């Protein structure tokens, strides 16, 4: 006996072109919101590596590296490029915190 499943993780809306377009448009908005909006450039005060940062709250920091951390950050280079062994560079975090204190980086939600 062969069982055929019709369940899929995400529906494809193949018979609803308007819904396909709505999902595509919302995906574009989500990409903009989560990957680009609110990012501010911060330069590490130790090694001068530049990253893009968004502070959603005092406890949540998003960092986008503009280059391979193992190539541009001495902290990551010191662990042989094994970026998984470090979450981030403590000097970079100090630079981000300094930028927040100086008002260079905005914290979006100051209540949490």
Can I get a quick summary?
The chain is α+β, with helices and mostly antiparallel strands and 112 residues long. It has helices spanning 17-35, 69-72, 74-77, 90-101, and strands spanning 40-43, 50-57, 61-65, 107-109.
Written overview of the protein:
It comes from Rhodococcus spelaei. This is Ferredoxin. It is a single chain. The chain has 112 residues and is of the alpha+beta class. It has a domain at 40-109. It has helices spanning 17-35, 69-72, 74-77, 90-101, and strands at 40-43, 50-57, 61-65, 107-109. Strands 1, 2, 3 and 4 form a 4-stranded mixed sheet that branches.
Overall radius of gyration: 20 Å
Bin the helical content.
25-40%
Count of helical stretches? 4
**Structure classification:** alpha+beta
Low-confidence stretches: none
End-to-end Cα distance, whole Å, is: 55 Å
| Oligomer state of the chains in this structure | single chain
Strand content: 15-25%
The biggest sheet, with number of strands, parallel, antiparallel or mixed sense and barrel status, is: 4 strands, mixed
Global mean pLDDT: 84
Shape: elongated
Q: Name the helix and strand elements from N-terminus to C-terminus, one letter apiece.
A: HEEEHHHE
Strand elements, count: 4
